[in-house]
Write the structure tokens for this entry.
Amino acid sequence: MDDTFKQITAIVKETIIPVIGESARIAPDALLYGTGILSFLTQSYPLAVLLLAILEMTLGFRIITTIIKAIRPDLVATMPSCRQGFPETGSLAALAGATVFGAGGAASVPHFTVSLLTGIAVYLIVSMWSKIDTLSALGESWEARIPTSLSLTIVILSTFIFGLFTYGCLTIGNLFISLGAGAILGGLSFLLHNTIFTPDATNFHGLPLLLNKFSAGEPVYVCSK
């Protein structure tokens, strides 16, 4: 019995936990490349715009990080366990470093994983909230998707944050900076895309958007019986 327990413990420590940890480290990279591949394969307009949003938020995070690093270079962590993105020996290391994490992929302020996940979450939640009239018109099952998505978002973010605190890769101050930067950039990105590319660009559910013809001064035709 003891041997079985030791074997299970060894499998968890040597296999499962490292896989989960590495998956968490490359999560932002996976979101970036996964969104790009899916937008290409499905020819999805909202996914293509989301890919643009991720790149915009990444640029925003890099600018904020550069400014903070210039002011307080001691805030940038260099612990190997805090690495973000693919390792330097990986085939996508150069691309990942150039587009997402900077040289080496070290943890930084704001923390890229927390910031990017927060930014994407805010972008998607606000996208759904902006379609609340249509969701309400489609019924309770559709309208319930907003609180469901919000609850799942909180669970996922909390899991990542707990893991980062466990490894000592995140502090309270960095957490608030990361959450704030992600929320602001995600919200600004949504407003920009929703205005420039029209609401169809943020319509991830493919909803039949309700249009007010009277506010646009367009006639409403009714078929005669």
Q: What stands out?
A: Confidence is low (pLDDT under 50) at residues 89-106, 220-225. The CA atoms of residues 158 and 164 lie 10 Å apart. Residues 2-202 form one domain. The chain has nine helices and no strands.
